[in-house]
TrEMBL record:
Pfam families, per database record: SpoIIE
The protein's name in its UniProt record: PPM-type phosphatase domain-containing protein
SUPFAM superfamilies: GAF domain-like (SSF55781)
Keywords for this protein: Hydrolase
Organism: Embleya hyalina
Domain PPM-type phosphatase, residue spans: 327-549
Residue segments, region Disordered: 1-45
Highest taxon in the source lineage: Bacteria
InterPro entries the record matches: Bact_Sigma-Reg, GAF-like_dom_sf, PPM-type-like_dom_sf, PPM-type_phosphatase-like_dom
GO molecular function ontology, one term from the record: phosphatase activity
Length: 576
């Protein structure tokens, strides 16, 4: 769509005005530049004001021009003389002149002349050196932190602490660790003469009162710098045994730094440099302090591991079952083989407990799923609960319910299988057993004739689930019968081919032990299990607990095995 076209007046005229009219509009043509004379400056003036030094040489190698900047950088360079510091060939040159770092570039001029353009790069090189030194310090701290964190053994750690700083920080390093428990100061140092690492133990009181060095740093927790040492001061700063070594290398300066360890008294690092090394700069002192902080973290970590190992050992000893008590009317024997990888902190346990009822005693076997300190601690607590409940006269089902209630208050990831029961011996020599089995492998019962039967239970495991109900079963045990309780580490033990030992093999081996004394019975079963494993490792705790009801001397059933065609009480089916 188009609108009305504007008139020529509205659009403006395209007719070009004549030249005279255009000149009258106030515009004038540009004038040609006037002829100029010689410039008011000279090339020499430009060179004199340049920050870059310029030195011009004749073809014969004689200096013919030196600008002021070059005179400041190379004050010995004078016109009319040769200056051999700058070569007559090449394109670049780097050197040091009066503690200044100089960089030069050579250019060829006409008529055989040549020029060197030089500048002072001292500030730039110092910045580069500072950056490189900072990077080197960071690499040292990172590597030191990595190596220190990978070592928790106290002796190896102190050795590493004294050897890592050389030669980055010092030529000789000592670590002094005070002990408030025994009042001793233990110092480890790496001798400067290359001899093995040495250790010195002194009284803490003597070191504490020293006027300088370790004792003063212990009291003030502040670092000390000794830029120049004599023989007397050296004797105050280092152990007497190290003085001769340090005098041999001409030890001159020392830095003593506290090591933060969150103890009543800090550990102390002593750095010593010989006369061939530079004194400690501020950056190096800061590096030593950073290194001491990392050493402090490593020492604290090592002590935590040592304390944990000590507690683990104490707990493992507490978990080792003690001697079984003698109970009236029964013979009891057991075997316990914890997995060696857990330092004795397995989850399996067994025990025989007294009860307030005459002629009745209780027994328990359990397995807390998992390994390690938390499992070992809960295993110990579980055994304590079962023992306490039995001593209070609680029935097996009640004991298991109390254990389940305790589990609801602890770690929800812990799961426990257990079997607990009471055994009452009657006047005629027989016995009766009441059992509660919570997810545990059911016991095997061998009657007087050597026949083995596996009991069946359907109770759930102990998992801390509210509302869980545990039942009880009763089993009569006539004289000559044996009840075997075991952990899943027995039946699930696998040989090198991955084949499990299994319940059937255990039943067969138990039947072959008919008539054997109960102590020999559990030993024989353990041997059979190990024979099955061969070279394969034991990967789970092994528990065997056998309860045997012996014949009485006047018991009429004594020859029952012979009547049934089985082995007698003093015979073994295999002739053993």
């Amino acid at each position: 769509m188009t609108g009305p076209r504007p008139s020529s007046d509205e659009r403006g005229s395209n007719t070009q005005k004549p030249a005279a009219s255009r000149l009258s509009d106030g515009f004038e043509p540009p004038h040609a530049p006037d002829e100029t004379g010689p410039p008011g400056w000279s090339p020499a003036e430009v060179l004199d004001e340049s920050d870059t030094g310029v030195i011009v040489f004749t073809p014969e190698g004689t200096v013919c021009h030196v600008n002021p900047a070059a005179g400041r950088v190379l004050p010995d360079c004078v016109v009319g003389t040769a200056f051999p510091t700058l070569p007559a060939t090449g394109t670049t040159w780097r050197g040091e002149v009066d503690d200044r770092r100089v960089h030069g570039r050579r250019a060829v001029l006409s008529d055989g002349h040549y020029a060197w353009y030089v500048r002072d790069t001292t500030a730039e090189r110092r910045r580069e050196d500072a950056l490189l030194a900072e990077r080197r310090r960071k690499v040292f701290l990172a590597e030191a932190g990595r190596m220190l964190s990978a070592t928790t053994h106290p002796r190896r750690l102190t050795d590493l602490v004294t050897t890592l700083p050389s030669p980055e920080l010092a030529d000789w390093v000592a670590l002094s660790v005070p002990s408030m428990e025994d009042g001793r100061m233990r110092t480890t140092y790496a001798p400067a003469t290359g001899t093995p690492i040495a250790r010195v133990t002194t009284g803490l009181g003597t070191a504490w009162t020293a006027p300088a060095g370790v004792g003063r740093v212990l009291r003030t927790r502040r670092q000390e710098l000794h830029p120049l040492m004599d023989r007397e001061l050296l004797g105050r700063l280092v152990p007497d045994e190290a003085v001769a070594d340090l005098l041999a290398v001409d030890a001159r300066c020392a830095l003593v730094v506290p090591v933060p360890t969150d103890d009543d008294a800090p550990s102390v690092l002593t750095f010593v440099r010989s006369a061939t090394s530079e004194p400690f700069a501020e950056e190096e002192i800061a590096l030593a302090v950073d290194y001491a902080e990392r050493v402090g973290v490593a020492l604290r970590t090592s002590r935590l591991y040592v304390e944990q190992d000590r507690r683990t050992l104490l707990l493992a000893r507490a978990l080792v079952p003690g001697p079984l008590p003698e109970v009236p009317g029964a013979r009891i024997a057991a075997r316990y083989r914890p997995v060696s990888l857990t330092n004795g902190l397995g989850g399996d346990f067994y025990a025989v407990h007294p009860t307030p009822v005459d002629g009745t005693w209780a027994f328990s076997v359990g397995d807390v799923c998992g390994r390690g300190t938390p499992v070992g601690m809960f295993s110990s607590r579980s055994l304590l609960i079962l023992r306490t409940a039995a001593s209070a006269g609680c029935a097996p089902a009640r004991r298991m319910a109390l254990l389940d209630a305790e589990l609801t208050l602890g770690d929800p990831s812990l799961v426990l299988t257990a079997i607990t029961g009471d055994c009452s011996v009657h006047p005629d020599g027989s016995a009766r057993v009441r059992l509660t089995c919570a997810g545990h492998p059911p016991p095997l019962w061998m009657d007087p004739a050597g026949r083995v039967t596996a009991m069946a239970f359907t109770d759930p495991l102990v998992a801390g689930i509210p509302g869980t109900v545990f039942g009880e079963r009763e089993l009569p045990l006539p004289a000559g019968s044996t009840l075997l309780l075991y952990s899943d580490g027995v039946t699930e033990a696998r040989d090198a081919d991955g084949e499990a030992y299994g319940v059937e093999a255990l039943r067969h081996d138990l039947a072959s032990c008919a008539g054997m004394p109960v102590e020999a019975l559990v030993e024989r079963l353990e041997q059979r299990l190990l024979e099955h494993l061969g070279d394969a490792p034991v990967i789970d705790d092994v528990v065997l607990l056998a309860i045997h009801i012996p014949y009485r001397d006047d018991h009429e059933a004594l020859p029952i095995l012979a009547e049934l065609g089985g082995p007698g009480p003093d015979e073994h089916p295999d002739g053993a």
